[in-house]
């Protein structure tokens, strides 16, 4: 298969995953494993998290709505508390892989679910440098942010929007994301998908290397 484009998620791919932070919070509060994730997955296209990522509600509304949803699941977590858990650090190996893909002449895109007034720079841990986000973004031909586009993963439309922007058909694309639920629509459209494991991006980089026939740093 001749690939023309590589499309990336941002959080959980170029950075650590918020899911890792959720797990720390859950252990600290003796909550069931994946408690937060299960709340976010419930009614996933129309719950408080989905509406916030599409910028349909503001932080005040999200704060109370997420509290209601989590309280109904057995333990109240305010929306602002959830936002405070979105503190991420960089995966430098993946950043280098993106640069190599770009240098090799492939089209590149980023589809990210993010929050109003909280872009990738705003989600960084205090010791991380915002300039690195600019370095990453400079290697994308097109970026789609859910809070600006009004559509989010895993809604199929957002993948169609990226293909249209890059002028490619889905079978000519590779898509990387850390969440399986976000990979399913891309795969159904004909994209080759790669799941980025939590805590270790090297297996995903190795898989990308095999698909493209490119050698990445550390290979």
From TrEMBL:
It comes from the Bacteria. Keywords: Acetylation, Hydrolase. Coiled coil: none annotated. Gene3D superfamilies: HAD superfamily/HAD-like (3.40.50.1000), Putative phosphatase, domain 2 (1.10.150.240). It holds the Pfam family Hydrolase. One of its GO terms (molecular function) is hydrolase activity. PANTHER family: HAD FAMILY PHOSPHATASE, HYDROLASE, PUTATIVE (AFU_ORTHOLOGUE AFUA_1G12880)-RELATED. This is HAD-IA family hydrolase. It comes from Hyphococcus flavus.
């Amino acid at each position: 298969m001749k690939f023309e484009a590589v499309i990336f998620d941002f959080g959980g791919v170029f950075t650590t995953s918020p899911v890792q932070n959720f797990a720390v919070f859950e252990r600290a509060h003796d909550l069931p494993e994946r408690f937060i994730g299960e709340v976010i997955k419930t009614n996933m296209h129309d719950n408080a998290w989905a509406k916030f990522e599409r910028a349909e509600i503001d932080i005040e509304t999200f704060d109370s709505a997420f509290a209601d949803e989590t309280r109904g699941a057995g333990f109240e977590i305010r929306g602002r508390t959830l936002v405070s858990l979105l503190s991420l650090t960089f995966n430098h190996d993946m950043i280098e892989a993106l640069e190599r893909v770009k240098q090799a002449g492939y089209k590149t895109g980023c589809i990210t679910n993010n929050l109003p007034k909280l872009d990738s720079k705003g989600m960084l841990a205090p010791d991380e440098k915002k300039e690195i986000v600019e370095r990453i973004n400079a290697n994308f031909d097109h970026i789609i942010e859910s809070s600006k586009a009004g559509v989010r993963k895993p809604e199929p439309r957002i993948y169609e929007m990226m293909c249209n922007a890059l002028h490619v058909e889905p079978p000519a694309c590779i898509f990387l994301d850390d969440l399986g639920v976000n990979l399913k629509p891309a795969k159904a459209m004909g994209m080759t998908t790669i799941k980025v494991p939590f805590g270790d991006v090297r297996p995903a980089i190795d898989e990308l290397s095999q698909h493209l026939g490119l050698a990445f740093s550390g290979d």
